[in-house]
Amino acid sequence: MALTEKHIYEALATVKDPELHRDLVALRMVKGVDTDGDDVTVKIELTTPACPLKETIERDVEAAIRSKAETVGAVVGSVGVSFTANVRSAGDRGRGADNPLPDVKHVVAVGAGKGGVGKSTVAVNLAVGLARHGASVGLLDGDIYGPSVKTMLGLDNIPTPKPRGNILMPFEIHGIKAMTIGKLVPTDKALIWRGPMAHNAFKQLATQTDWGQLDYLIVDLPPGTGDVPLTLTQLLPLTGAVVVCTPQKVALEDALRAVKMFQQLGVSVLGMVENMSCFTGDDGKTYDIFGRGGATEMAQELDVPMLGEIAIHMKLRVNCDAGDPLANFAGDGTLAEELDRLCKNVAGQISIRALSGEHTQPTLSVT
């Protein structure tokens, strides 16, 4: 006796998403089952190719099916799980024809309350890390006044792609697509722009770049709570925001303002990242140069997720200066582990919001 399709769906109804704690059938993640003799294949739809839950879901699905077979006295051969990532796009979340980037599924802002906390470093490595997990990713350098993505991606000696009419063509490097104003203006030119000029520049970079189809567009915002974050929330349907800070009190106070800004703008805060959390010397001793754990405490107080801690690594600085972010993920060191954990946690938070239907277009409320 072989398992029937009904048996298989009954088994899948006992498998819960590890983060939402609801079963795969109720979440409509099961897109079909195929049987070939005693062999079973289940089709599961994820929210992104970079979903960190693949291995857990695959293991739990096989265990549930084999358990069901034993219960009903059926014979089961191999159990396979095939994954797809045909998910709700940004255009499905309330903007419709008003969405200027309908082929971008998730727009994620990376912000900070103050400069110098490593926001751009986090944005670059987040984009590259998600691409390493199989997602199609774009990176928009929205830090109009201090664009550093050019250096971190190693774009200095790479010719700027020729535009197609008034459409900018992105750089394709390190497995991602990228656009930065740092390649469109002279390096030694100070951008002394008032708000409307910054607004127009950001709008052009965001909506007049040929991004194509993306799972994620990571946007590196300027520090603070000024014009560009407001422009972004008005312009694009945001999936959420990542807030970067360092552990000391002064930085945390500014990070709090960044979190509150996104919340006031109706943007879901995916979580916080504590950068420069500690430093381990050649003597093996760990030094909390800026303190440690402040972001974790703040995340708990604000009831937002803690996405990860990134220590001070010489390798991270060297690779960012050299424009080689992929090297940060090479080897088995703690840096690669910390960055990979960050990417998986961000993807996980997006999965939670996508599956629970939390994506809504932000609305601005000024009081």
> How many distinct helices?
10
Question: What is the straight-line distance between the termini?
Answer: 67 Å
Rg, nearest Å: 22 Å
CATH A-level architecture of the largest domain: 3-Layer(aba) Sandwich
Biggest sheet, open or closed, and with what strands and sense? 9 strands, mixed
Helix/strand/pairing category: alpha/beta
Helix content: 25-40%
Q: Just give the CATH class of the largest domain.
A: Alpha Beta
Described by its quaternary structure, the protein is single chain
- The arrangement of helices and strands along the chain is HEEHEEHEHEEHEHEHEEHEHH
* Extended strand count: 12
Domain module count:
2
Shape: globular
Strand content: 15-25%
**Unreliably modeled segments:** 87-95, 360-367
CATH fold label of the largest domain = Rossmann fold
CATH superfamily of the largest domain: P-loop containing nucleotide triphosphate hydrolases
Key attributes of the depicted protein:
GMP Synthetase, Chain A, domain 3; 20% strand; 34% helix; 12 strands; 2 domains; 9-stranded mixed sheet; Rossmann fold; 3-stranded mixed sheet; 367 residues
Can you describe what's shown?
With 367 residues, the protein is an alpha/beta fold. The protein folds into two domains: 5-84, GMP Synthetase, Chain A, domain 3; 90-355, 3-Layer(aba) Sandwich (Rossmann fold). 34% of the residues lie in helices and 20% in strands. It has helices at residues 5-12, 54-72, 119-132, 149-152, 195-207, 227-235, 249-264, 294-302, 314-322, 334-355, and strands at residues 30-36, 39-45, 79-84, 104-111, 137-141, 171-173, 176-180, 214-220, 240-245, 269-280, 286-287, 306-312. Strands 4, 5, 6, 7, 8, 9, 10, 11 and 12 form a nine-stranded mixed beta sheet that branches. Helix 2 (54-72) links the parallel strand 2 (39-45) and strand 3. Helix 1 (5-12) crosses helix 2 and helix 3 (119-132) packs across helix 10. It is globular. Residues 87-95 and 360-367 have low confidence and may be disordered.
